[in-house]
Structure formats: structure tokens, C-alpha cells
């Protein structure tokens, strides 16, 4: 199954903030560029108006003094006041011919704009566009003044303005990302506690609780989490109690059935054996041909008694409270080794002191081992079964490995495995049944001996 790549939430949010900040800086830069372009055009329009007004005054003065020698147009007086680097002043006559033109030189910029920026700026703003104003005297149009700025100078000025913003962006954006990441890391720190709590819930530790959080959203999650944990803990406790009662009732019914079989069926088989022995003695004297039938009846009754004895042993095992768990399991394994006649070899090993275990845990462990051995010998066809029971500080671990058929459905399902699961669930333990590393099957059971768990502590 294809899984989508996962990204850290802090990194993702930081990248989004950085993208939004960069877009904001780009919008601000575009605003400054548009404003600068408008101001530049407004400036040259103003210069064009001033030059046109000056030329109109010049022509009016010429007509007023009736000077036959006219030096109109004369841009020298006005150019001294309005000329800036890269600016061009010109007067275009009514016939479209340029009669006079002044242009100031532009110094070579220390940091020329990149070619990419220059091409981009020229494609958007058309630097060097002319501003023209008509020169009208007494209702007659004598021509027009033309003002323009060198495109390279205007592009360099725009780059200078944009460059300052880019420097500010280059400094502010990493700093902003670092601050946002730190703030998110601090704000999302409680999520690690939430994850730890969920992991403990997944591990069947329903005593996990979350402390109060500062953020309202996380506090709402905390309330739901704690309520869910309490509900699950209560439901599991009720289920465990019900399972315990059902198992106790089942064991009581087994003991009752064992007594009935022993008292009724066992006595009947004993009587049949006695009658067969008496009939054999009579047949020896009166009818020797019946000896084989009498012996057959005796053998059948003996075999049925052996089967009954095994059934009674499974229905009503030895008292674990009196013999102890270790002795009971050793007797169980020895019985299986005796009944298998070498077809299946059973071995058991203990690690720890099991004398102080509660009676309920000892009885459940005995029944779990009994069902597991039955599954391995009868359903999986195993030839070698090894058991290991380990007592640790806070739990009991049971490991049963065999070399049988791990894919046999009977070995993985049925009332035997269901009974084991019910007993493990009643003790709030865990059970896993899977294929062994070297073939066969592996049964793992862990049962806690101390159910109390500390509540999650609040991180500093």
C-alpha cells in the first residue's frame, strides 16, 4: 500500500509562513515599484509643464519688446533648475522637428541592476517614456516641450529601491522563520505528551492521563482523552470481571462434570472390568471359547478407563494452590511426554520465583499452558514443544514454541485459543500467536503482576 510522505508540522507551518511572508514582501516591492514609476512620470510631467510655461513667457517677452532678433526657444535658463542625471529636455516645433535639445549625462551606477530585473522592469513599466506639453501663445500652438529620462537611470533607481527591500527580506525572512519555528515547537510541545498517552492506551495501559494544558484546543483534547481512557478502563474492568466470573463458572462446571464422570462412568467401567474378570474365570471352567471375548471386554474397559482418567485430568487438574504452579506445570508436561510415547517431546524451563503468585493468575497460567500444549500436539502436529515461564519485576512472560504446522487453521482459531484469550484478557495481559522465526508457531503471553501505572507527568 502506498503511503504519502509525512512532514513535520512545525516545518510545514514555518514554510507556509515563509511563503506568505515572501508573497507579502513581493507585494510590497511591487507597490513600491509602481509608486516609484508613478512618481517618476509625475515628476517629468511637472518638469514638462514648467518648461512649457517658461517658453510661453519667453515668447511673450519677445513679442512685448518687439525684438527682431529672437532666440526662441531658449532652454538654458530653465535647464539650470530642473536638470537631473539622465534627464533630457527638448522643444519640438509645430512641424515635428526638434529645434533644441539638452540632455544631462548619467553616471555609471556602482551596482548595476541585473539583466533579468532590467528586462522585467522595462516590460512592465516602460521606462524612458516621454512627457510632452504644448507651448501655446495667444491661442496659437508654437510646438511642445518633450521631457524624458534615460531608461537605464530609471531602471537603476527602481533596482535601488527594490534592492533595499530584498536586503530587508533576506534578513527578516530567516529570522522570522526561526522565530515561528521556535514558537511552534514550544506551542506543540504538549503533543509529545498526547502521543505518549495514546501509545500507552494502545499498549492497554488505561491508567494513562493527560495533565491540563495552556492552550484551549489542547485542553479540549485532554478532556476527551481522559474521558475516553476512563470509559475504556471502566469497560475493560467490567469485561474482566465478567470474564473472570464466566471462567470461574466454567471451571466449576468442569469440576462438576469430572465428579459425575468419576462417580458414574468410572464406577460403571470398574464394574464392567470386574464382570469381565468373573466371566473369564467361569469361562475357564465351563466354556474356554469365551476367554478371548472376556479378555477383549477387559481390554476395552481398561482403555476406556485410561481415556477417562486423561479426560478427568484435563477437566479437573491438580490443585494448583496445594501443589504450586511449578509442580503442576511439570506434572502436566510429564503427562504429555508419557502419553505421546516419544512422538512429541515437551520441555519446560522456569526463571523466577512463582510461589507468591495469586491463585487466579496461577490457575489461568496452568489452563493457558494446557490449551497451548493440546493445540500443539493435536492440531499442529508438532514433534518438539518448548515452554519458558519467566517472572519479571512487573510481569510474567510465557513463551511456547513448536515446530508444527503454523498455517493450520485449527492451530490459530477455535475454542482453545478463544479460552486462552479470555483468560489473558481477564488478567489484563497480552497474547500474540504468530509464525515462529524458524518455522512452526510461537505463542507469547505477558501478564502484569502490578496493574498500577503512574499518571503522565507534565513536561517542564
TrEMBL record:
- The keyword Cell wall biogenesis/degradation appears for this protein: no
Residue limits of the HAMP domain? 185-237
The record's GO molecular-function terms, alphabetically, read:
phosphorelay sensor kinase activity; protein dimerization activity
Query: Which InterPro entries does the record match to this protein?
Result: HAMP_dom (IPR003660), HATPase_C_sf (IPR036890), HATPase_dom (IPR003594), His_kinase_dom (IPR005467), Sensor_HK_TwoCompSys (IPR050482), Sig_transdc_His_kin_sub3_dim/P (IPR011712)
- Primary localization: membrane
Highest taxon in the source lineage? Bacteria
Looking at the record, the residues that make up the Histidine kinase domain are 365-451
Signal peptide boundaries = none
What is the name of this protein? histidine kinase
Amino acid at each position: 500500500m502506498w503511503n504519502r510522505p509525512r512532514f513535520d508540522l512545525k516545518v510545514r507551518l514555518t514554510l507556509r509562513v515563509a511563503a506568505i511572508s515572501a508573497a507579502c514582501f513581493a507585494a510590497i516591492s511591487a507597490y513600491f515599484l509602481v509608486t516609484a514609476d508613478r512618481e517618476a512620470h509625475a515628476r517629468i510631467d511637472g518638469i514638462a509643464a514648467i518648461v512649457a510655461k517658461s517658453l510661453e513667457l519667453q515668447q511673450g517677452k519677445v513679442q512685448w519688446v518687439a525684438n527682431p532678433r529672437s532666440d526662441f526657444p531658449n532652454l538654458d535658463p530653465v535647464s539650470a533648475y530642473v536638470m537631473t542625471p539622465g534627464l533630457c529636455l527638448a522643444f519640438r516645433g509645430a512641424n515635428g522637428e526638434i529645434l533644441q535639445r539638452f540632455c544631462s549625462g548619467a553616471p555609471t551606477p556602482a551596482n548595476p541592476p541585473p539583466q533579468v530585473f532590467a528586462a522585467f522592469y522595462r516590460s512592465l513599466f516602460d521606462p524612458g517614456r516621454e512627457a510632452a506639453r504644448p507651448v501655446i501663445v495667444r491661442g496659437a500652438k508654437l510646438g511642445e516641450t518633450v521631457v524624458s529620462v534615460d531608461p537605464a537611470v530609471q531602471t537603476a533607481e527602481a533596482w535601488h529601491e527594490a534592492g533595499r527591500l530584498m536586503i530587508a527580506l533576506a534578513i527578516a525572512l530567516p529570522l522570522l522563520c526561526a522565530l515561528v519555528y521556535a514558537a511552534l515547537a514550544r506551542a506543540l510541545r504538549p503533543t509529545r505528551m498526547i502521543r505518549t498517552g495514546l501509545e500507552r492506551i494502545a499498549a492497554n495501559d488505561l491508567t494513562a492521563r493527560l495533565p491540563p494544558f495552556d492552550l484551549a484546543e489542547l485542553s479540549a483534547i485532554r478532556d476527551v482523552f481522559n474521558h475516553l481512557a476512563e470509559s475504556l478502563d471502566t469497560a475493560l474492568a467490567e469485561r474482566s470481571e465478567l470474564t473472570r466470573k464466566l471462567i470461574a463458572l466454567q471451571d466449576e462446571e468442569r469440576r462438576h462434570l469430572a465428579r459425575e464422570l468419576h462417580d458414574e462412568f468410572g464406577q460403571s467401567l470398574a464394574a464392567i472390568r470386574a464382570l469381565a474378570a468373573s466371566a473369564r474365570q467361569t469361562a475357564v471352567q465351563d466354556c474356554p471359547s469365551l476367554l478371548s471375548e472376556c479378555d477383549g471386554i477387559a481390554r476395552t474397559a481398561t482403555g476406556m478407563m485410561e481415556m477417562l482418567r486423561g479426560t478427568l485430568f484435563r477437566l479437573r487438574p491438580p490443585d494448583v494452590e496445594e501443589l504450586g504452579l511449578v509442580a503442576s506445570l511439570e506434572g502436566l508436561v510429564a503427562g504429555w511426554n508419557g502419553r505421546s510415547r516419544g512422538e512429541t517431546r515437551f520441555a519446560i524451563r522456569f526463571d523466577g520465583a512463582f510461589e507468591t503468585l495469586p491463585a487466579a493468575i496461577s490457575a489461568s497460567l496452568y489452563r493457558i499452558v494446557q490449551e497451548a500444549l493440546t493445540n500443539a500436539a493435536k492440531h499442529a502436529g508438532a514433534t518438539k514443544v518448548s515452554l519458558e515461564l519467566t517472572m519479571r519485576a512487573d510481569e510474567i512472560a510465557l513463551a511456547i514454541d513448536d515446530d508444527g504446522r503454523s498455517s493450520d487453521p485449527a492451530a490459530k482459531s477455535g475454542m482453545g485459543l478463544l479460552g486462552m484469550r479470555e483468560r489473558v484478557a481477564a488478567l489484563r495481559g497480552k497474547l500474540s500467536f504468530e509464525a515462529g522465526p524458524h518455522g512452526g508457531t510461537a505463542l507469547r503471553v505477558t501478564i502484569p503482576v502490578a496493574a498500577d501505572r503512574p499518571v503522565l507527568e507534565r513536561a517542564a
